[in-house]
Amino acid sequence: MIPEDQYARIIEALPILCVDILIKNPKGEYLLIKRARKPLMGEWWVIGGRVLKGETLENAAIRKIKEETGLTVGKVQLVGYYEDVSEANRFDFAVPLHSVSVVFLAVSDSREQVVLDYQSSDWKCCADLPERFRAKLVRATTLLPPDSILRSSTEGIPLP
Length: 160
Description:
Elements: H1 4-13, E1 16-24, E2 30-35, E3 44-45, E4 47-50, H2 57-69, E5 77-86, E6 97-107, E7 120-126, H3 131-136, E8 137-139, H4 147-150
C-alpha cells in the first residue's frame, strides 16, 4: 500500500492507470455497483480500480472482478478507454483525481452469486450503462484507422 502523503504527491503530478470492466449477464444486462466511496460515492457504476505495478491490464481486470464481486471470469475483451477528472477523491486531497481507465468486457453466467466488497453498497443488473460513463467511453474501434491502412498490399487480411 502506498502511504497517503506519497499517494497525494502522485495524484498531484500524474494520472492514475485503472481498469473498468463491463460485466454482462446472459440477458445482455450490465452489472452495476453502487459506490460506497469517493469518487462517485452513491452512484451506480461499473467494476474497476487501479492497476498494480507489474500487473497486466487483463490480469488487473480479472482481479478487480474477483475482489469487488466474487465472480470468476476466464477472460476479458478490450473495449476501449475512459478518462475522467474528478474533484473528489477518497482521501479528500485538495487536488483533482485524473484517472485513465482501460475498459474491458467480461461475460458472467448467472450461476455465481455476487458478493460485494467494502467499496460497494449494492448491485443491480441494468440494460444501460451510466450516462457519464457512456459519454466519456472511447471505443477501441474508433481509435483504429480503416482496415485498408492496416493491411499490407500483398496480404489483404482484414483485421477482426
